[in-house]
Amino acid sequence: MRILVVEDEKKVASFIKRGLEQESYAVDIVYDGIEGEHFATVNDYDAIILDIMLPKKNGLDVLQSIKEAGVETPVILLTARDSVDDRVKGLNLGADDYLTKPFAFEELTARLNVMMRRGGSGIPVLKFSDLSLDPATRRAKRGDVEVELTVKEYALLEYLLRNPNRVLTRTLIAEHVWDQCFDSETNVVDVYINHLRGKVDSDASKRLIHTVRGVGYVLKDE
Question: CA-CA distance, 28 to 178, in Å (whole number)?
Answer without folding.
Answer: 9
